[in-house]
Amino acid sequence: MRLWHEELIRLLPKNQLLGQHRECCALRGNGWKKKHKTVDYVFSYSPYHLFVYHLLVMEEMEKRGYNVSAEWKDKNYRGKTAEKYDNLEEEITDSPIYKEHNSEYLAECIENLEKKGIQLKYSFLERMARIEILRKHKT
Prior knowledge:
Layout: H1 14-28, H2 47-63, H3 103-115, H4 124-138
Helix pairs in contact: 1-2, 3-4
């Protein structure tokens, strides 16, 4: 269980992107507030933050031609078995949405993907920024 750094969403391979959608669906539904070491930080925020993060995932899915059930674009929807929110309060979110998604977390996510044999496709500028992040992370 992991929420990838939001900067990586548009670069994720198909399996990781679709997996992230399933992860968001589970967390928004009956998985909300269920302890899990790598995503516990999510529960210290309003569920609205997860909704906004999930929107990023769904937008990328649609850009790639995948269908997304319209229900998930409703901030109050929590899946077929979880009770809907009663008008979940909208909040202004920062970028990154979760402060935990900092440069160290970005490096950790990239490293995790590379251990799985996944090399992300970056532009030259993104590659230079990535090298700088990894250099700082290792010192």
